[in-house]
Write a structure and sequence with these properties.
TIM Barrel, disordered C terminus, flat
């Protein structure tokens, strides 16, 4: 799972990228902490109230206190925008306007601060404040905007959100300046049964527990609040982990050595390069102890208590995502076609496609959220002013000029990277000219009117990079080509109803009769003809043509011109450069033309068909040109398709309905949260390089990409809901079809516990993630009824292993206070079943060799008394050296050892010096790349690039197979030789023991015989003794048993 500059790792070990923007802590200007006098006014009530406006020291809340000491506050994380000057709101009522006007002679707009907040893109509320000078207004506007979009506001740690909850309690005090206990109880729960739990926890923590009680801030510091948190949640699951690590029940603290072992074995990504990301050492462990251990005596001893262990788990040093992923971590200097671009469909709509409302404000909200491509449908206005509307529907229109002004004001407030305006133009030439003039006047230098000198509009030239187009607005509109203005293409037959075109291209009315809604659905949204270039000469070869409008048509069912875009006027056409929409004919034709500045749009059905029929070609097309995919016209409810489907094909502009925060939109918002929320995400390398080949339906590993394995154990939840209901958690993965897993992994339901449900599930295993760079995890907590509580989107690349907390979000991606899950995550490279030992040898050859030697010594205990090697130790060593030299020279000179790249600037040997060498052959990775790559142009062949091959590809290589077979044969020969020698020695030992038994038996018989004769004769007879034959050892026991004994004579 490679990331730029190395492997994705833990937050504490990930290094900064070359163009990193620091993950800045929240810093509140002193002027905002001190406060300022404003008049807060409300249009509905018509009242202006003098207030003192300030921000708390941590930058969590904007609060205001009136003259009666009544206070209210606003969570800064919910602020969407802050405006002053021309775009600030001012009272419509003249009397109210007079009330709020005070101070200098600056205009009311210049002295007004308008704060916009909301929980979605549609329902936005406004809070307005007026001050005495425009300098004050500007200071507060800029500072509040900076605080609202600080990355820490959304991506803070569990401990930060705990501090945020405590801060809110200290702000909402009574008139005596004390904290009401009922506020503390209300923060954690809203039901009667759980209230008793909170009251009991307050008692255990030594705090007042009555609902009418209060407590002073001096007696309720953050440490007291943290103790209350521990009493309420218990965190027995964390204590269990701690006790397992400490080992001895009597020991209460963890040593620095134990912490080092835990950091390296559990919390560290095993795939990290050891040079770029060194292992934790004692110094690192002592730093953690010093930072999180509350007991100073333990710090001096270098020990960590459970309290400190829990604090570390909740800290920024234990984030679930590497902090570098939130920074500007992608290379922004590549062609525009190499990025996924956050895109909106029918941006003006706030609801239903046919009956919903249009809004200027939603353009601002989409751009502020990082959307970099918005759509504008222009139609002729009744007052000779162009409007934006969903044609042939009940949707009301909005002035085009106001929309363009909103775009100019909001385009680059949260991201400096280029914005694409996707025009669908149905206006007559006169109103088109107005649109062009408005663009020039309103956008000014932001408008990209001419192509860059370094990137000309010619075949073979690549699109410029996002960095080169910073703070530029790019127009996407049909381009006028004078040499073919007499022809336009045929389109599929639509419904018959439409307004009548006039001779000069005007449309008498853009409003269709109420029952003719289907006319709109017969336009570009269902036929995919939005981007027909009716005048491109190259298109004429691939499409039929017919006479221009006004001439008789042979097809009475031909689509009326009013439903299609009108021909581009000269003025608007002159503004179009790098994004010129054309009708799509085939991938082959696009490759032949080789024009990066031409792009095509497809509705989701057309794109799906192309993806199924020609997946590889679709990916290759998107390496050089832009493509846009939008929802089918049948999605009247403004629902969304799953964008992952088309990201898998490399489509850049996957346009969604931002007004609907469904699963698809949640995934889109979650993915584009990374790379500093620029709205641009660099596509994986194999989706950019011409010499690489990707099949989006691949089930096996992709050349040069190491598949991954991810295991997630959902252990517990904290403050998931203030209701007394059952909860459960689902874990899904989105990526290639082979990687996507949905509705499979779900915990059991924990009934009646929203405070600290303990799931303690077995790991959910995603065994083989073919393309980790395209995959993401979705964690979602639900009430037992199926209602979503909160979710989180996590990229697989950048996921940190070990025990981690993850804070959940709303559908809009705003953080849920205190709502978190506690997980155990394991990430590693995928290893096929049965090859784990071989993979271990490749990953850690020194350890593998050491284990082999250790096993040999253990076997020697059983066999060393059965073999007696001759010669001195020096002679044995010389023999072994000679044998090794002979093996090396038997197959020719040893070839360089194959290496496996483990990160930038380092590699790991596949075999050690004492291993059997690989025979002379080209490097395995180079051989595989040549076999599986598309032929490179000559200029690319001179570039040497080392590509790490996946393990299964290496094992499939002919040379590796032969060497493996050779080693197996040698091993089998050695085993048989050893078994034979062992059997011989055992046989000899058995025969020797048998001989001794026979000899002893014969001696006994001889003694008995002589004793019998002595009893009769009284003397020994030497003759009888010598005459008695003795059974030899060679005759064996049977010879002795069968020999007939001599009878003694009386």
């Amino acid at each position: 799972m490679a990331v730029p500059g190395g492997r994705g790792g833990s937050a504490s070990s990930a290094g900064p990228s070359s163009n990193s923007v620091s993950f800045k802590p929240i810093e509140v200007p002193q002027a905002l902490q001190n406060g300022e006098k404003f008049i807060k006014w409300d249009e509905d009530s018509g009242v202006g109230t003098p207030v003192t406006l300030r921000v708390d020291q941590h930058g969590f809340y904007l609060l205001w206190v009136d003259q009666m000491n009544e206070m209210d506050l606003l969570d800064i994380a919910t602020i969407r925008d802050v405006r002053s000057g021309k775009y600030a709101k001012i009272p419509k009522d003249p009397k109210l306007r007079q009330i709020v006007t005070m101070g200098s002679q600056d205009t009311l707009e210049e002295k007004t601060v308008t704060v916009c907040c909301g929980t979605d893109f549609v329902n936005i509320s406004f809070v307005n404040f007026c001050c005495t000078r425009k300098e004050i207004s500007r200071l507060w506007t800029d500072a509040l905007m900076s605080l609202a979009y600080n990355l820490t506001q959304v991506n803070g740690t569990t401990s930060m959100f705990l501090l945020k909850a405590y801060t809110k309690l200290t702000l909402l005090t009574d008139k005596a300046g004390k904290i009401p206990i009922k506020n503390v109880i209300k923060m954690f729960t809203s039901n009667k049964e759980d209230r008793k739990r909170v009251e009991k926890a307050l008692d255990i923590s030594g705090l007042p527990s009555g609902k009418n009680d209060t407590i002073s801030i001096e007696k309720f510091q953050f440490e007291d609040f943290f103790n209350l948190y521990k009493s309420l949640t218990q965190r027995s699951e964390v204590e269990k982990v701690f006790n397992e690590l400490v080992g001895t029940p009597k020991r209460h603290n963890m040593t620095a050595a134990q912490l080092v072992d835990f950091l390296n074995k559990t919390q560290r990504d095993p795939r990290l390069n050891e040079i770029l990301y060194p292992y934790a050492n004692t110094a690192r462990a002592k730093d953690i102890i010093a930072q999180y251990e509350p007991n100073k005596y333990n710090v001096q001893k270098g020990q960590l208590s459970f309290d400190g262990f829990l604090r570390y788990f909740m800290s920024e040093d234990n984030n679930i995502i590497a902090s570098s992923k939130f920074d500007l971590c992608d290379d922004m200097d590549q062609s525009l076609s190499h990025y996924f671009i956050n895109s909106s469909h029918n941006t003006y709509l706030t609801g239903h496609q046919l009956t919903g409302k249009s809004s200027v404000e939603i353009y601002r909200q989409c751009l502020l959220a990082g959307c970099r491509c918005v759509e504008l449908d222009f139609w002729n206005g009744k007052t000779d002013e162009p409007v934006i509307v969903h044609g042939y529907t009940f949707v009301q229109d909005i002035p085009a000029k106001e929309v363009l002004e909103a775009i100019a004001e909001s385009a680059f407030k949260t991201s400096d990277y280029p914005v694409v305006l996707s025009f669908e133009n149905h206006c007559n030439p006169r109103q088109q000219a107005k649109i062009a003039n408005y663009c020039k006047e309103i956008f000014g230098e932001m408008l990209l009117e001419q192509p860059l000198d370094t990137h000309k509009l010619e075949p073979g030239s690549q699109l410029p990079s996002p960095s080169l187009l910073k703070r530029k607005i790019i127009i996407k509109n049909k381009k006028k080509h004078h040499h073919h203005h007499h022809y336009h293409k045929k389109t599929p037959p639509p419904s018959q109803e439409a307004s009548e075109p006039t001779g000069n291209g005007d449309i008498a009315s853009h409003h269709a009769p109420p029952l003719q809604m289907q006319a709109r659905q017969g336009s570009k949204e269902s036929t995919g003809t939005e981007d027909e270039d009716s005048s491109s000469e190259e298109e004429a070869d691939a499409a039929e043509v017919e006479p221009v409008q006004g001439q008789p048509s042979e097809h009475p069912d031909q689509k009326p011109a009013a439903q299609k875009e009108t021909e581009a006027g000269a003025e608007i056409s002159a503004l179009v450069n790098y994004i010129q929409p054309v009708h799509f004919s085939s991938f082959e034709n696009a490759e032949k033309k080789n024009r990066s500045y031409e792009m095509s749009s497809f509705d989701e059905k057309q794109a799906t068909t192309l993806l199924k029929e020609k997946p590889i070609e679709f990916v290759n097309y998107n390496k050089f040109q832009l493509s846009r995919v939008y929802p089918a016209g049948t999605r009247f409810d403004s629902s969304n398709f799953m964008p992952q489907v088309f990201w898998n094909a490399g489509c850049q502009l996957v346009a969604l309905n931002f007004q609907t925060l469904d699963l698809a939109m949640q995934l889109n918002l979650g993915i584009f949260e990374y790379n500093y929320r620029t709205g641009y995400l660099l596509k994986p390398e194999f989706m950019r390089r011409k010499d690489r080949r990707l099949d989006p339906f691949a089930e096996s590993t992709v050349d040069g990409i190491i598949a991954g394995t991810v295991k997630i154990s959902v252990i517990s939840g904290q403050f998931l809901t203030d209701k007394r209901v059952g909860t459960y958690v689902e874990v899904d993965m989105y990526g290639l079809p082979a990687d996507t897993v949905r509705k499979k992994f779900r915990t059991k339901i924990i009934p009646n516990n929203g405070i600290n449900p303990l799931y303690d599930e077995e790991p959910f295993v995603f065994k083989k993630v073919v393309l980790p760079e395209l995959a993401s995890i979705r964690l979602a907590a639900y009430e037992e009824s199926g209602k979503l509580i909160g979710h989180r989107i996590l990229p697989v690349v950048g996921l940190c292993p070990g025990y981690r907390h993850v804070n959940l979000r709303t559908e809009l991606g705003q953080p849920l206070p205190l709502c978190s899950l506690f997980l155990l995550i394991v990430v590693k490279d995928y290893v096929p079943d049965g090859l784990s030992d071989f993979a271990e040898a490749l990953a850690n050859p020194i350890k593998y060799q050491s284990d082999l030697e250790k096993r040999s010594r253990q076997l020697a205990v059983l066999t060393d008394d059965m073999e007696a090697p001759t010669g001195t130790k020096d002679e044995q060593k010389k023999d072994a050296t000679a044998k090794t030299t002979q093996e090396l020279t038997s197959n020719g000179s040893p070839s360089p050892r194959p290496t496996l790249t483990s990160g930038v600037g380092s590699s790991i040997d596949l075999v050690t010096e004492t291993d059997v060498p690989v025979t002379n052959a080209p490097p395995v990775s180079a051989t595989l790349v040549e076999q599986n790559s598309i032929t490179k142009p000559p200029e690319i062949l001179c570039v040497e690039e080392i590509v790490a091959e996946p393990l299964d590809k290496i094992l499939e290589n002919k040379l590796v197979k032969e060497k493996k077979l050779e080693l197996e044969k040698k091993l089998e020969t050695l085993r048989k030789k050893h078994e034979k020698k062992k059997a011989t020695l055992q046989s000899q030992k058995s025969t020797s023991e048998t001989g001794e038994k026979i000899s002893k038996l014969m001696n006994i018989k001889l003694v008995k015989r002589l004793s019998s004769k002595n009893i009769v004769t009284g003397v020994f007879s030497t003759e009888s003794t010598s005459a008695e034959p003795l059974t030899s050892v060679a005759d064996g026991p049977e010879s002795s048993a069968n020999a007939e004994p001599e009878r003694p004579t009386l």
